[in-house]
Design goal:
20% strand; 6 strands; alpha+beta; globular
């Protein structure tokens, strides 16, 4: 019997453990990544890169530079850009690589409301409607805590965050470079996040990697 996709997503959401994510995020905001390193597998070739409030000069990807420029033009020194002010036409050059996420009621997990078509093609599926935690469990990702902690850190700092992390071997992108910017809701809470997600070093996948992707993604 085939399980209804919504039932499956809800089950994964309930299975997400949020303990320790906020303290981890607070340490990231403070520039301390030691606790994050302890949560990642010891056999990883390299730790994720995290840069808080990156400058335009730091960013090498044109899509990241475009998003940062747009966000800063629509933000003030007192508050990030409002979600209601978001204009997709202004970001048409980035559109296929954009993700839009919304924090759940705990503020510790984040639902994909928009999942860019170019990213979905490389990721193997469209994750719209899933939370970050649920997606991480579904894909057996060892970076689930990292993903969520960075979004919480973005909300706490109310500043953009750049990250780069390696992909699993069953994806054609060797790594992902993300620029995350916070958006505030009508109440002024940073509960929305816009992400320009750039795949880096696309590689051909062999039969074994393809088969593994099919088993994981179903």
């Amino acid at each position: 019997m085939r399980i209804d996709p919504q039932v499956e997503r809800d089950a994964f959401r309930r299975a997400v453990v949020s303990d320790g994510i906020r303290p981890l995020a607070e340490q990231i905001v403070g520039g301390d990544y030691s606790a994050l390193a302890q949560r990642l597998p010891k056999d990883r070739e390299r730790l994720p890169t995290i840069v808080l409030n990156p400058s335009q000069d730091f960013l090498v990807e044109p899509r990241h530079r475009s998003l940062l420029s747009y966000w800063r033009a629509n933000s003030t020194s007192d508050a990030p850009m409002r979600r209601s002010a978001l204009d997709p036409i202004a970001l048409r050059d980035v559109m296929g690589y954009l993700l839009l996420l919304h924090a759940d009621e705990t503020g510790l997990d984040f639902e994909f409301r928009v999942y860019g078509t170019e990213i979905a093609q490389i990721a193997g599926r469209d994750w719209t409607g899933w939370t970050v935690g649920a997606m991480s469990l579904k894909t057996r990702s060892q970076l689930g805590d990292f993903y969520r902690a960075v979004y919480v850190a973005c909300a706490l700092s109310r500043q953009p965050i750049f990250t780069e992390h390696d992909s699993p071997p069953w994806l054609s992108a060797k790594s992902w470079r993300r620029l995350i910017v916070p958006l505030i809701d009508d109440a002024g809470a940073p509960s929305w996040f816009l992400v320009a997600n750039q795949p880096y070093e696309i590689r051909p996948l062999g039969n074994e990697a393809h088969a593994l992707r099919e088993r994981i993604l179903g």
